[in-house]
Amino acid sequence: MYRFIRNIHLLSGLLASGYLFMYAWSAVEMSHRQWFGLQPKVTERKVMLDGQFAENPRAAARELMDRQGIRGELRNVQKTDSGFRIRVVRIGAFTEVDYNRASGEASIKTSETAFGGALVQLHHVAGFWHETGYFIALGAIVAVVSVILFVLGASGIYLWFKIHNERVTGGILLGLNLVYAVGLIICMSRG
Are 82 and 101 in contact (CB under 8 A)? Predict the structure, then answer.
């Protein structure tokens, strides 16, 4: 039984380590943006939309996605006094469209980030309510890693109590982990 739990513990740690490293790195990036220069590349353009889209933001979004090459998941559809605002999100970029009903003009603003900015976006992905497959897949990865962390903790506790002569090593590793976690929290709070 011990060997099986040990292998589960090691495998769990290996499976979760890549995602957890990305999560930690992106947390530091969010806290210290000035260190990483995460300024997005912004492009803006204006296009005309037919009057048929004036009251149907989702149809307007579909038209813009087809005609203007905007890719991603439609989010945050809001009515405004002059028309509506929509946001289309994909990993590494988001597009905001402001439609003016009176002029029929849509202002399209696209912000594209480098790899570091994409990691920050990945940091916030969760859930299965998304429209696009890759966001759903990323939500599934978050769920799997969450379960793996519980398995890692439970197997670690089992191993801790099973091996009496390695409790000192475990205590040292636990202490180092605590110092690292507190240090990371301090670094993030000073941003």
Answer: yes
Residue from 6, 24, 31, 7 nearest 145 by CA? 24
What domains can you pick out in the chain, each with its CATH number? 2-36+120-189 (no CATH), 41-112 (2.20.25)
- How large is the average pLDDT for residues 58-64? 78
Q: Give this prediction's pTM.
A: 0.59
Distance CA 73, CA 133 (A): 10
Number of Cβ within 10 Å of residue 162's Cβ equals 12
| Pairing assessment for the beta strands 105-112 and 93-100 based on DSSP bridges | antiparallel
- The pair of three-digit structure tokens given for residue 112, joined into one six-digit string: 């594209």
What is the C-alpha to C-alpha distance for residues 166 and 172, in angstroms, rounded to an integer?
10
State residue 109 phi and psi, 5-degree precision.
-120, 115
In the predicted model, what is the mean pLDDT of the chain?
79
Q: Which two tokens stand for residue 26?
A: 């992106």
Is residue 129 within 8 A of residue 57, CB to CB? The reply is no
- Determine contact, residues 152/144, Cβ cutoff 8 Å: no
The contacts found for 128-132 with CB under 8 angstroms, 24 or more apart, are 130/73, 131/73, 131/74, 132/72, 132/73, 132/90
